[in-house]
Each structure stands twice: as structure tokens, then as C-alpha cells.
Amino acid sequence: VLYCSDGCRDSAWNLYHRVLCQGASVADPNHPTEKLKDAWRNMHYPPETSSIMLIARMIALVKQSDKKDQILSKFAEFCKSTVNEEEHIAHKLLGKEFQEQLEILRSLVCEAFYDEHVQQWFTPEGFRSLFALIGTNGQGVGTSSLSVWVHNCDALELSDEERQTLDAFIDQLYVDIEKESGTFLNCEGSGLYTFQSACNHSCQPNAEVTFPHNNFTLQMVAVQDIKAGEEICISYLDECDRERSRYSRQKALRENYLFNCNCSLCQSQIDDPDVTSEEEEEEEEEDEEQMQEDS
Ligand SMILES: [Zn+2]
Ligand SMILES: [Zn+2]
């Protein structure tokens, strides 16, 4: 791990790194932490921004702290349900396809970090809710210089033609990066933020999360005028998913965040057919083909 200053390194050491430090065995495949990281790399766990090391760091924070109750009550502020009883929704990670993975991760996390002060996190039920916690609250920390550059590009005043060329270039860039190094996420890690995680979702949000200082300091910025007393909402869906049909958006929100979205956009689209965006696109293509045949 690289730190920006001695102060940063010392504070990490005093808060959690004493537990997480692998020292000389950092590349030893038999080290319990390496085994855990390796297993994680080979799994595709939803959502992509969550990280097993976030769980490791939570455990380490408790382990190292002499005020364990304070830390635990901080974590208790986050929502960590795996089911929404009222609306009869269960988290995606309770699905069959993830059960086996979750059990493997649980035993590896136990092996690497078991601590009796948080033994409730190591039971199958407790481990699931820990996953639900980082899944529903984990915020990707967007500090990659590429994402800053893309963001700055968006702000440029360009002619339509220049805009199209630039957008096509950026799209291609992401495709090429993905070919080389797998899915590239505009984030260098994930974190938990008590204040931001208390914000509700809207498919037409009036605020967004930014990382203006290229570090983990999170800032919420209004994307439109907000009246006094109006609720501040952010989007839990990334930009791509936000463009999708009402049905697709609601499905993603139900599976990952356990609620039925009733935002103004969803309400205005209430009469839309229940099709996924893919189906919609296919239909559009068929329509186009039909029209070509007709003409
Ligand atoms: Zn270290
Ligand atoms: Zn909505």
C-alpha cells in the first residue's frame, strides 16, 4: 500500500492496518489474506463496487479499537437488511447462484480475521447481512484521473460534431481498456459514508456524489435547483442503468437495494410496458426492420 504522507500512513496503522498488514508475506499465496483476495478476484459478486477488503477493514477497525462499542454503533447506522419484509423483496445475494460463493468467502474471512468481539458477523446469517450492508451502502470512490478527465470533457463547449467524435473516442477507450484489463471502474475502491448513505434514491436525482479533491472526500452537488424543504435524492444506479426502461431500473433497485422505486420519473412512466431495455432495443430494431421492409 502506498500512502501520500507519513501522517496518512501512521493514522492507517493506528486505525486498522496493524491487523491488515501482510508485511513480508504480501505475495505469499498461502497467506490467509492472499487466499481471500484471490477467491474474490475469481468471483463476480454484485454490485461491482463492493469489495471484500471493505469487510476486512471493518473487522480490523473493531479489532484495533479500544472503543469497540462506538465503532459498532456507527456501523449499526447503516441499513443491512437482506430482505424487505413489507414489500416481500429479498436481496439478490440470497439467490442460489451466490450461496456457495458466500460460504467460501465466509470461511476465508474467518480464517484470516476471526475476532470474538464481532463473532456475530461470522455466522452465515451475520455474514450475509454484512454483505447486504456493503452492497446497499458501499459507495465507489471515484478518484481515477481518467474519470476526472472524462468529467472535464463533458463540461467542454463543443460543436455537435466535435462532441460526437469525442464521445465516440471515450466510448472506444473504455472498450479498449476493458479488453486489456477487464471491466474498468471509475473508482479506486469503495467506502461507507453515513451521511450520503442516508440519502434516498430517485431515477431523476437532484444531487450527485462527486470526489472533487481526488481523494476519498465525498461531496454532494446539486444538479438542479432545490427548493427549501425539498428532499435531496441521489441516483443509486450508474449513468448507464439510469438510461434504461422503468422496468429494468426497478428490477435493479429491487434486487440490490430492496425497494420499489416510486420516484417522479417512475410515476410518469407507470403506463410503460414491463419490458427490459434489451427487449425494448430489440423491438425497436424489429420495428426499424419492419419499416424498411414496408417502404
Ligand atoms: Zn503494511
Ligand atoms: Zn424511479
Structure commentary:
There is one protein chain. By secondary structure, the chain is mainly α. The chain has 13 helices and eight strands. It has two domains: 133 residues, no CATH class; 91 residues, no CATH class. The protein has a two-stranded antiparallel sheet with strand order 1-2. A two-stranded antiparallel sheet has the order 3-4. A two-stranded parallel ribbon has the order 5-8. Strand 1 and strand 2 form a beta hairpin. The longest helix is centred in the middle third of the chain and has 22 residues. It is globular and about 55 Å long. The termini are far apart. Bound molecules: zinc ion (2 copies). The site of one zinc ion (ZN) has 3 residues, from loops.
N-C termini distance: 63 Å
Based on secondary structure, the structural category is: mainly alpha
Estimate the global geometry from the Cα principal axes.
Answer: globular
Ligands in the model, by name, code or SMILES, are:
zinc ion
- Please tell me the total number of domains: 2
Summarize the biggest pleated sheet: 2 strands, antiparallel
The share of residues in extended strands comes to: 5-15%
**Rounded average pLDDT:** 84
Number of strands: 8
Instruction: List segments where confidence is low: pLDDT < 50 over at least 5 consecutive residues.
Output: none
Number of helices: 13
Key descriptive features of the protein:
single chain; 295 residues; mainly alpha; 2 domains; two-stranded antiparallel sheet; 8 strands; binds zinc ion; histone H3K36 trimethyltransferase activity; histone H4K20 trimethyltransferase activity; EC 2.1.1.359
